[in-house]
Design goal:
With about 260 residues, the protein is mainly β. The protein contains no helices and 19 strands. Strands 1, 2, 3, 5, 7 and 8 form a six-stranded antiparallel beta sheet that branches. Strand 16 and strand 17 (about 210-215) form a beta hairpin. The mean pLDDT is about 95.
C-alpha cells in the first residue's frame, strides 16, 4: 500500500498491505481404470451358472456417484453402460462395491452365446477442483452356453508320399488350447498301410472364436492309400467348461496318398 496514494496525496502504509493469498488450481481430472474380466470358476467365459467380475480403480477422486446397486444387462445400475452381442441377456449386473478408490462389477445369470460389453461412464467421479472423469475403456465378458462345434477346411485332395497334409479347424466359440501332439485325442487318423502320420496342432484365439491348424507328417504309407481323419469334439472343452458333443462331430474328411 505504500505505493498507492489517495486523491489527497496520502500514501498508504507498508505494514497495512494485505497478506499474500495462495491458490491451488486443480487441473488433473479423475481417472477410472476398468480391468479385464476374471471368471468364476475361472475358465475364460461364463455360462448361465457362472460369475464374471471386473474391478475398477479411481484416482484423483474425492466423490463418486457410483454406489452398491443391482441391475440387469437391459437395465444396468446407474453409472455403468452395458451392451451385448449374440442374443446375450444377463439377470444380474451389479456394482458389488464402490468408493472413491474403486470397486467391482459382478455379472451373472447370462444366457445366449456372445459377449457383454462393459463401460464405466463419464462424470461419475469428481476431483477436489470439481473436475470430472472421462469414460473408461470398454471391456468384454464372454458368454458361452452352447457346446462348441467345428468346421474343417483346407485339406488337400492328395497328400504327400508319407501322408503329409494339413487342414484347419474353425470352432464356433473360444475353446481351450488343444494338445500340441494330438495326445488329447482331438483327431484319429487311419488308412495308411503302415504307421499313420503324426499330428502337430497349433491353436490360436481370434476375435471371437478359436482356430486350430493340424499338420500331418511322417507316416508310412503307400501311394493310393485313402487316409481318413475323424474329429472328436467330445475331447474338446470350451472356455466356459462346455464339452463338445459326439452328435456334433463333423463328417470324416479323406485324402489320397500321392507319389
Amino acid at each position: 500500500l505504500d505505493k498507492v496514494k489517495d486523491q489527497f496525496g496520502n500514501a498508504g502504509l507498508e505494514d497495512s498491505s494485505p497478506s499474500a493469498v495462495t491458490y491451488n488450481i486443480d487441473t488433473t481430472i479423475p481417472v477410472v481404470s476398468l480391468a479385464n474380466a476374471t471368471y468364476s470358476p475361472g475358465f475364460g467365459a461364463v455360462t448361465s451358472a457362472d460369475t464374471a467380475k471386473l474391478s475398477f480403480t479411481l484416482t484423483n477422486t474425492v466423490t463418486t456417484t457410483l454406489a452398491v446397486s443391482s441391475g440387469t444387462s437391459a437395465a444396468p445400475p446407474t453409472g455403468i453402460s452395458i451392451s451385448t452381442t449374440g442374443g446375450v441377456s444377463c439377470t444380474h449386473v451389479d456394482i458389488h462395491s464402490a468408493n472413491t478408490s474403486g470397486g467391482s462389477i459382478w455379472i451373472s445369470g447370462c444366457t445366449g452365446d456372445g459377449s457383454v460389453l462393459v463401460t464405466v461412464n463419464a462424470n461419475i467421479a469428481t476431483s477436489t477442483g470439481g473436475l470430472h472423469n472421462t469414460a473408461s475403456t470398454q471391456k468384454t465378458v464372454w458368454v458361452q452356453n452352447s457346446s462348441p462345434t467345428v468346421t474343417l477346411s483346407g485339406l488337400a485332395a492328395t497328400g504327400g508320399p508319407n501322408g503329409e497334409n494339413q487342414f484347419d479347424a474353425t470352432f464356433s466359440n473360444f475353446v481351450n488350447t488343444l494338445s500340441v501332439d494330438n495326445s488329447g485325442g482331438e483327431i484319429v487318423v487311419s488308412g495308411c498301410s503302415g504307421t499313420q502320420p503324426t499330428v502337430a496342432i497349433t491353436t490360436t484365439d481370434l476375435a471371437d472364436h478359436t482356430v486350430a491348424w493340424f499338420n500331418l507328417t511322417g507316416g508310412t504309407c503307400t501311394v493310393g492309400d485313402l487316409v481318413t481323419i475323424s474329429f472328436h469334439l467330445e475331447n474338446v472343452t470350451d472356455k466356459a467348461g462346455n464339452v463338445g458333443q459326439v452328435a456334433d462331430n463333423p463328417a470324416d474328411i479323406t485324402y489320397l496318398v500321392g507319389p
